[in-house]
Each structure stands twice: as C-alpha cells, then as structure tokens.
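Running this now, will post back.
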Amino acid sequence: MVYETNSPEETFTFARQLGEQARPGTVYTLTGDLGVGKTVFAQGLARGLEIEEAINSPTFTIVQVYDEGRLPFYHFDVYRIGDIEEMDEIGYEDYFYGDGVCLIEWAELIKELLPKTRTEIAIEKDLQKGFDYRRITLHEVME
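Update: finished.
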C-alpha cells in the first residue's frame, strides 16, 4: 500500500492512525534516508498508542521504551549497531516478541533478527512533487 503526504503534519497523522490500529506484538520496520521524517513518523505512531511524552530518536541508546500508553512502545534505532551481538545484549527478543509495539529504524542492518511477520515501512522524498512531499509504502511480510 502506498500513501502520499504533503506535510510533516500529514505524515504525523498517518502514523497516528497506524498506531491507533496497532495490536500487541506488532512490529514495524522503518527505512528512509536521513531527513525524510522518520522521527515525525515515530512521534505520530506513539501518539496513536496514547503516549504523550516527547519521542526522540534513540540513536545512541539503540532502544527507547515508553510504557505510559495503551500498549508499550519500543522504539529502536539500530543505525549504530556495530555487531549483531549488541542486539542480544539488550534482549531484543523480549521486545520483538513481547506484548508491545516495536518500531525499528534502519532494520535492514539486522535483517536476520527480524520477526517473520512484520510491516515494512519505507518513506521517500520526491522533490519534484514538493519539499514536504513523502511517499510512504507499507508492505506486510509473512515469511
């Protein structure tokens, strides 16, 4: 499925709606170049989970846990993973296969660890359609 947004607010709203539909154990992977709006997307998803606190990219912590919403939200940024064993050290399986909702940025770097059932999300710019235009592609994976 492909969705098009024309502002950060529209991207936020789309992600919020996705969060409102999320169920326990939902895993989303998120890919896109720097500056495409991954953090805005994460903020919208969190709001859809009824999380009110500020959402920031967990670039240096790998995972940020938010427990205050209707479901726990596990926000991963694995861009700085140097060795796949680092994921074992943080207990990734408890998050990936738990009762919360996972959002994993740069998931292609840990592809061998991803759950067989997940929703892959890609965000892309197209400057010919405007500076704030984003194409958001969702792909359900069931290996």
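The chain has one domain: 2-142. More later if anyone needs it.
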